[in-house]
Amino acid sequence: MKSNKKYLQYTWFVTIMVFLVILAGGVVRMTQSGMGCPDWPTCFGRWIPPTSADQLPPDFEKYLKTQDIDHTFNVYHTWIEYINRLLGALLGVFIFILFIWSFRKFRKTNKQIVWLSFFLLIAIGFQGWLGKKVVDHNLAVVKVTIHMLVALLIAAVPLIIIYKLQAERKIEAKFLKYLSYSLIVILLIQIILGTQVREQIDEISKSLKYQQRELWIDRLDGMFIIHRSFSWLVAMGGIALWFKARTFKSLQLNVIFILVGVLATIIAGLVMAFYNIPAIAQPLHLLLASILVVSVFSCSLRLK
Ligand code: HEM
C-alpha cells in the first residue's frame, strides 16, 4: 500500500482538478462568457487571445458574427472562456500523466487500473471534442447537458481507481450498498431534471438579454416544480443513508459530508428560487450537486 501512496495522492489531485474545471464551466455560464472565444481551439484565430479590441485580427467580424449573445468584443468574456479552456487542457495533461503512470506501475500487476486510466483519457478527449461542438453550435443546450454528465463520469473514474487500490478497506454492508446505489439513481434523475431547468433558464435569460432576473423563475414550466419537489426524495435518501451508516466508524465522515452536501445543494436551489437567481448561486448549485453525487458514489465504492 505504501508504494501506492504517491500515486493515490496524485489521483486525488486529478479528482479535485475535475471539480475545479466544473466550477470554471459554471463561472463561464454565470458570466455569459460561453462564446467569448467564438472559435475553437484558437480564440479569434489566435492561441493567446486579444487583450484589447485593437489586437483583433482584420477579419474579426467573421468571428463575432457567430456569437448570438452580442456581436461585440468583450475582453472579460474572452479571457474567462479562455482560462476555462486552459484549465480543461491542463486537466487533459494531468490525466495523460495519470495514464502513463498507471501503465508503467500497473501494466503487469493490475491491468484494470491501466484500462480505467485509459478510459479517463478517452473521456477527457471526448469532452474536449464536445466542447468544440458546443461552440460550433452556439452553445446548443442539449450538448451543454451531455457535457455536464460526461464531467461527472470523469470525476467518478479516479475514485474507482482509488478504491480499487484500497479494496481491503471495504466494509461489508449489503443493505447500505443498495441504499447508496438507490441514492445515486435518485441524484442522477434529479441532476437530469436540473439540467432541463437550466436549459429553460438559458433560453429565458437569453430572450430577456440577461436582464430582469426577477422574471426568470416565473417563466419556468412544470419541470421546475418537479425538480424542486424531487429534492424531498433526495433529502430522504440522504437521511436514510446517514441513519443506516452512522454506526460504521469509518463511514461516519463520508455520510455526514453527504448530508451536508444535500442540505447545501437544496439551500443553493432555494436561494435561486426566492432571490431571483443570484448569478453566484448558479455555479455553486452545480458544483455542490456534482460533489454530492460523486461523494455518494465514493461511499458506494467503500461497501461490499
Ligand atoms: C439535492 C437537490 C438538488 C440537486 C442535486 C440539484 C441539481 C441541479 C443541477 C445539476 C442543475 C443543473 C445546473 C447546471 O447545469 O448548471 C440544477 C439546476 C437548477 N436547480 Fe437544482 N438541484 C437540487 C435542488 C433544487 C432546489 C430545491 C431548487 C429550488 C427550489 C433548485 C433549483 C434549480 C434551478 C432554478 C436550476 C437552474 C439553475 C441555473 O440556471 O443555473 N434545485 N439543479
| Average predicted confidence as pLDDT | 89
Question: Based on helices, strands and strand pairing, what is the structural class?
Answer: mainly alpha
- Morphology: flat
What is the share of helical residues?
A: over 70%
Q: Treating each run of at least 4 consecutive H or I residues as one helix, how many helices?
A: 9
Strand content: under 5%
Distance between the termini: 20 Å
Distinct compounds present: protoporphyrin IX containing FE
Number of domains: 2
Low-confidence parts = none
Determine Rg (CA atoms, Å): 21 Å
- Output the helix-strand order: HHHHHHHHH
| Biggest beta-sheet profile | none
Q: Using DSSP, what is the number of strands?
A: 0
Blueprint of the fold:
Elements: H1 5-30, H2 60-64, H3 75-106, H4 111-136, H5 141-165, H6 174-207, H7 222-245, H8 252-274, H9 281-301
Helix pairs in contact: 1-3, 1-5, 1-9, 3-4, 4-5, 5-6, 5-9, 6-7, 6-9, 7-8, 8-9
The structure holds protoporphyrin IX containing FE (HEM).
Question: Can you put this structure into words, describing what you see?
Answer:
This protein has 304 residues and is an all-alpha fold. Helix content is 71%, strand content 0%. The chain has 2 domains: 1-169, no CATH class; 171-304, no CATH class. The model has no long low-confidence stretch (mean pLDDT 89). The structure holds protoporphyrin IX containing FE. Protoporphyrin IX containing FE binds at residues 148, 187, 190-191, 194-195, 197-198, 201, 227-228, 231, 234, 262, 265-266, 269-270, 272-273, 282, 285-286, 289, 292.
